[in-house]
Amino acid sequence: MIKTVIPAPEVVTAPIAGHADRFPVRRVYCIGRNYAAHAIEMGHDPDREPPFFFQKNPDNLDFSGTFPYPDQTSDVHHEIELVVALARGGRNIPVDQALDCVWGYAVGIDMTRRDLQGEAKKLGRPWEIGKAFEHSAPMGPIVPATTTGDLTSGSITLRVNGVLRQEGDLNQLIWKIPEMISYLSDYFELKPGDIIMTGTPAGVGPVVRGDVMEGHVAGVGSLTVTVA
Fold it and tell me: Is residue 163's pLDDT more than 60?
């Protein structure tokens, strides 16, 4: 056993639907503006430009069903996303082999301190202050790909207090799941335990304390999160 001078952080693990075992998380990659309608609503050209990624931290993931409204912000937005969990990795993975890396899928919400992200954008600074804060990635259990099959289409929605806010289809992804995995592997060495948040459809918007968010991805399941 390795001795450490301070207590070692615990490995973050995600629940697996129908199983007692859990999925260990190594890194959390997020792709930006991966639905054309969302790119437009954020003021960008929806054409197929090269994808770009940012990261959240594994311990930003939250499986409790509660999202504590964060400090230092007055404008927190929801972004419903399909999450991809990898069982294999590598470098320069060909697109036609990328789905072989997938272990399973989950429903996630990329919570964003939009005001802080906006300030960072204006100043040309990184986005972490708006994206990678505590509890900023509510996520449901991972469903094995052997159960879901390859997800190329299917409804993705988010309701707040029962009112539909976001609605799209996985077939509207600008960069498809195999392409995301392949592209990432050209710049990072992907490894087992990496997860990818695949982007959000149009309709992102603010939440306040007491709101109940209900996300759903066809073939994967639902996620209910209360803003505390």
Answer: yes
In 3D space, the residue among 83, 215, 200 whose CA is nearest the CA of residue 143 turns out to be 83
Q: What is the pLDDT of residues 104-118, one digit of tens each?
A: 999 999 999 999 999
Q: Is the entire prediction scored with pTM above 0.90?
A: yes
CA distance 215 to 111: 12
Region 13-227: CATH code: 3.90.850.10
CA distance 107 to 219: 10
β-sheet with 155-160: strand ranges across = 66-67, 221-227, 212-217, 155-160, 163-169
What is the predicted pLDDT for the residue at 198?
A: 97
Closest Cα to residue 30, out of 1, 7, 51, 4? 51
pLDDT of residue 224: 98
